[in-house]
Design goal:
CATH topology of one domain: Transcription Regulator spoIIAA
Shape: globular
Number of strands: 21
Strand order of the largest sheet: 13-14-12-11-10-9-8-5-15
CATH class of one domain: Alpha Beta
Oligomer: single chain
Strand content: 15-25%
Length: about 500
Amino acid sequence: MLRPQRHRLLQGFPPLPLMQVATLDHPKGLVRQADGAVIQTQLSRAEIKRGDSSNWDDAFINIDNSRPLIIGIIPHTQCIPLTPACGFCTFPHDAANKNLRAGVVRSVVWDIGAVVERHGDKLAGRRVDAIYFGGGTANLSSTSEIRKIFDELASHFKVGQSEVTLEGIPLLFTSWFHAHLKALASLPTRHKRISMGVQTFERGRIERMGRGSFGDEKMVKEIVRYGHELGLTVSGDFLFALPGQTLEQMCDDVNRAIDCGLDQICLYHLVLYSGLGTPWSKDAGLVGQMPVPAVIADYWLTLRQRLLSNGFVQTTLTNFERHDLNKTNRRFIYEEASYNPDVYDALGFGPLSISTQIDYGQQRGVKLLRRKRLGKPAWSGDDLYFGYEPEDLKLLWVTRCLAGLALNRARYQARFSTDIAEDFPAALAVTVRNGLINADDNTIALTSPGMFYSDAVIGTFAAERAAKLRDRAAGLSTLQVLEEPVTAGSEVYGGMG
């Protein structure tokens, strides 16, 4: 609890450093399947449709095609701040490049078709409840590029009842006469929403981030108003505990965010410490202005209460939704679904996207991560893979459910035939003793301080298993993967392609 809290609980289990390389030990031309099998195929569209392949590794799980899906799309990893990665950002960030971006989008579209076609009815035709276009600044992609990706999804999955989210910066939601908002509203799905990275309304701080032209309070209010006219819901992301920021300034940001009429407000404390690897973390002056975690925790409690007192309901560690919206089918479904691993599987397409399929009959699962190099088919080469054994699935449950604030003990027992207190007695005892978790006969829930110290909570639960997994993991740090160059599948589009 004395160390920086890094939002690891939001990332789920296992974290990237514990994943293995997908097919590095196999000859070239092999790919990892969503069920964990390794097959050999040249992966031209014709060969995929004919099913010309041979297995090198057997399937690790049986895919249940009756389970609904959520789909995450990262169309590219580019952004346009004047300061590299805004100074603070730990998310993937590459400089804007229209030609490279278009190539990556084409690779994403090809990946969707290739992955679905080689899996047959294991993936094709499955119901999708939520689609999220995010990562980098997704609305840098043109409306036609977003539509191409959506149309490819619609040709393979049942998307009519989906929620679709487009993430990005305010400025690009206003450009070309709100083209992105209009295009999103026109999609043939149940509900549409946008998520904007606002960070703060303080002019000096936003300019230090190189985001001075990204959008001010007036622009955010206009986007909210016009989005509502089109039937969209609108979310905004905000940071607190910035270097030298006072609690009064943090409260002012939250008050102004509420006044903008946002349907959802996402509140993140700034993660900043020496050695983190971000530009600001290399500035001793800025790092020296950061409060200790206990002080930031007090800020969190104050800001959380301010949102709750103004008609918002907390839905996850970081997200607050208007109470009148939260009880309707217009609430934010994608994140809610991702924190229900007993119901949903997940597919990800694009650089750094994540896919997860669970087989509760065998008490196993598969997690796959696409690297930034899209020159080879998914999931091959140095893409990443993890096969969940029973003890790993239990940690997946703990991380996913607690990111949604609470774990239902009866549901856990129905899946694993054990109680969480039997599986993690020491971790549960110490987190309860430190006031981070409340446990009763029905629920294991984070306390309000435990929400801030969620990094400490999950580190405690996962420590023993993580120690056992490190030897066979690829050992890649998140920063290594984020900083590698992004590439498109040039060979896929060579010749007449």
